[in-house]
Amino acid sequence: MTASCGLFAVKKRWSLGSSRFYEEIRVKKQCNKNYPSLHIGCIMLHMTKLEKFPFFTIKQAEAEGLSRRMLSYYVQKGLFEKVGRGIYRSTSYVSSDDKWYGLAVAASSIKNGVICLVSALNYYEISDDFMNEYWIAIPHSKSKLNFPLVRIVRMRNFEVGVKEIKLADMKVKIFDIERTIVDSFRLLDLETAIKALKIYLSGKKGRPNIRKLNTYAKELRVDLSKYTTAFTV
Predict the structure, then answer these.
(1) Where are the beta strands (DSSP E) in the chain?
(2) Sign of CA dihedral 102, 208, 154, 162
(3) pTM metric for this prediction
(4) Phi/psi class of residue 152: alpha, beta or left (left: φ > 0; alpha: ψ in -120 to 50)?
(5) 116 FRET partner, CA 20 to 30 A, in 33, 93, 107, 142?
(6) CA of residue 94 relative to chain centroid, distance
(7) Which residues contact residue 218 at a Cβ distance below 8 angstroms, ignoring those fewer than 6 apart?
(8) In the predicted model, is pLDDT for residue 184 greater than 60?
(9) Amino acid 24: pLDDT
(10) Count of CB atoms within 10 A of residue 152's CB?
(11) How far apart are CA 143 and CA 224, in angstroms?
């Protein structure tokens, strides 16, 4: 009887339609009278895959058979937590790098998003400006998005200097350090841009690629010659 009761509960949970939540609760109540471990089993079935993700969306949760109502229920019980609009993670998930977790989630959640400007400067450690929001670039042709704690920047020449990195267990895109410096002269204050360029040219963060820097500057119509000459003499 235990097996049939458990099977019935699982089948109901995977059924389609708005009645899924109420059917699941009704079956759990019926079964839990004599089989209290069934409720724990249902929870574990939901969480088996989701708890391994750095984050997941409502759509992904539903694909795993977890309704919106049950997701809210698990959030109230402290099994999941909301980390952004429509974005969740298991409270048991431990990021390999909490410092960059929020930035990685933002970059992963925004279609065609690329980490840029202040966030990229912080990642490359060529700025000491406080990052109080995540800077994400999107193609200029895309509509501007509203995303919590994110500064969206629409850019042209979007394919120039893009690379993929692994950040807090997630694959994300970021502009390379040379593109980031050139963009700083275009879109940030001069003091921040000059400071980043000086650190870059000093070689403290690796051997500078002056040729690539100048190629990007020419393509993006930024004159860096007087700064590169002054700092390399």
Answers:
(1) 56-57, 80-84, 87-90, 114-115, 134-139, 150-155, 162-167, 170-175
(2) negative
(3) 0.67
(4) beta
(5) 93
(6) 15
(7) none
(8) yes
(9) 46
(10) 19
(11) 31
